[in-house]
Amino acid sequence: MPLDDVLDDLRELERMLRSAPVQEHFKSASADERARFVGLRQEVTVLVGRLTNAQLAGTLSQLDALAGELQAGMRDLQVRLTRLDETLAFLHTLAAVVGVGARIALLVK
Amino acid sequence: MSNGTSRQAWSLIAVLLAATGCASTSEYAKFAQAGSAYASALDHVLIAAAQTSVDATSERLLQDDAVSNQDLKSYRSLSDVDEERLVTIGKLRAHTHLLAAYFRLLGDFANTDASARAEAAVGAVVDSLSSLGGQLRARRSALNQETLAGVTPLVVGAKVNAALKKELERRKETIRLELQTQEALLGELAAEIDHDVRVTRDAKEQRVVIAPLLEPKPIANASAWADNRRAILTSRSALDELANGKDAGTELRTTFEDLVSGKVTLGRIDALLASIDGLLSVAASLTR
């Protein structure tokens, strides 16, 4: 799967996580949940930034298998977004997606 | 044929050749002007891209801090991405300046009086351009010189003087590669600017428009609030202009290819200049 598609998916994920409904929901979560959510969200942000920089520097190539996993995770996350009140389940799914993202990030190094 | 008639015929041929050379000089001079304008416009876009990137990170950090207090480690991890981006943008700016310098020299080659000076200067410019272009391409297989073997080679048109023809024969494919590199990078940068503008817009709307509106007490400075809201909501139009702006890179390359092949007209170069104006307006709107 080309890098462009992976980046598009991750950018969409970041915009979703930074949208007003998600931001407002987590403002009223527990301190631990807030810290965990922000940490995961920042990992997505850093991943988007690093992959973009790698794309601009021309140092990244195809990411087939991992990109497929990422897409599956994002579909799951989209479903969880409709049930934000199930905070723990949402955070668990987000963590799984970020985990795939971290493995993608290793390819950048 | 008498000597007088023969002299007349040769004079006529000389006039025709001179007229042809003059038309070609105008085209190269105008393309040099377009190349300089493109470089100036793209420089503004790159500066705007750098600012947009940094501002988007600031909004992200503020957004994160509103939910959970931030620490130095978090700040550094986001800021380091910005620093890396600024280095790449710096290289792109330098690459653009070198391309503009080359196009100015190309204009000089078309002008017989200046071609010797151009010949003395062009080698260093092209060496720097290729070196920097090589860094920007790195392992991009789609843009490496070897893979251009299958692409139709440019054939230099007949209507150029000897010095210009010699220069184009030598460097046309090198310059085409550097223009393709610019085109690809501009496209990728456009996608990231698009994303940064959207993230900034949404986060800023939450911070300076929605949050104050939802506060129990009335908004203190209504005019400032309304100004902020307008600026934020109309930043969307910059994204549409960016779509037009990034086409300028493609137009520059195809115009260069047609110029070398002797197929370009002054009208076509005027259209290129209009396209570059679009690029400049993109940069202006992004930094408004």
A few lines on this structure:
Chain A has helices spanning 3-17, 20-27, 31-57, 64-81, 87-108.
What do you see in this structure?
The complex is a heterodimer of chains A (109) and B (288). Chain A is an all-alpha fold and 109 residues long. In chain A, 83% of the residues lie in helices and 0% in strands. Chain A has helices at 3-17, 20-27, 31-57, 64-81, 87-108. In chain A, α1 (3-17) packs antiparallel against α3 (31-57) and α1 (3-17) packs parallel to α4 (64-81). Chain B is mainly alpha-helical and 288 residues long. Chain B has one domain (24-286). Chain B has 8 helices and no strands. Chain B has helices at residues 3-67, 72-110, 115-137, 162-214, 222-233, 236-245, 247-260, 266-286. In chain B, α1 packs parallel to α4 (162-214), α2 (72-110) packs antiparallel against α3 (115-137) and α4 runs antiparallel to α6. Residues 9-23 and 146-150 of chain B have low confidence and may be disordered. The chains are: A mainly alpha (109), B mainly alpha (288). Chains A and B meet through α1, α2 and α3 of A and α1, α2 and α4 of B.
Oligomer: heterodimer
Average pLDDT figure of chain B: 80
Summarize the largest interface: chains and residue counts: A-B, 33 and 35 residues
Rg of chain A, alpha carbons: 14 Å
Question: Biggest sheet of chain B, in brief?
Answer: none
According to DSSP, the number of beta strands of chain A is: 0
Task: Tell me the β content of chain A.
Answer: under 5%
How helical, in percent, are the residues of chain A?
over 70%
